[in-house]
């Protein structure tokens, strides 16, 4: 089974070392109730698929609703939230590519 998960993606400032560095962080996107509030128990936005082809089709549909603009994402101008739609083999989970030391 494939999970097509929707994340809100952002850049985070890691620190001033070596001229400053940034890393990506993402959180599963949550559904809102009719009044625009979050549910007490998070309801993440994801869909399931049985085949990879079906998952790719769902991913394309969700990318139209939740677009990702690389130029806006790396810009210093705030252009609103950026989303990423991923095909994974698990339910959505928060994460980052934070690596201060390699």
Number of domains: 1
Shape: globular
Distance between the termini: 34 Å
Radius of gyration, whole Å: 16 Å
Sequence of secondary-structure elements: EEEHHEE
The major sheet is characterized as: 5 strands, antiparallel
Tally of separate helices: 2
Enumerate the spans where pLDDT stays under 50 for 5 or more consecutive residues: none
Give a topology summary.
Blueprint: E1 2-15, E2 21-28, E3 46-49, H1 52-65, H2 70-74, E4 82-88, E5 95-96
Features:
single chain, 102 residues, alpha+beta, 5-stranded antiparallel β-sheet, 2 helices, 19% helix, globular
Molecular structure report:
- With 102 residues, this protein is of the alpha+beta class.
- The chain has one domain (2-92).
- 19% of the residues lie in helices and 34% in strands.
- The chain is built from two helices and five strands; from the N terminus they run βββααββ.
- It has helices at 52-65, 70-74; strands at residues 2-15, 21-28, 46-49, 82-88, 95-96.
- Strands 1, 2, 3, 4 and 5 form a five-stranded antiparallel sheet that branches.
- It is globular and about 45 Å long.
- The N and C termini lie far apart (34 Å).
- 13% of the residues are buried.
Summarize the structure.
The chain has 102 residues and is α+β, with helices and mostly antiparallel strands.
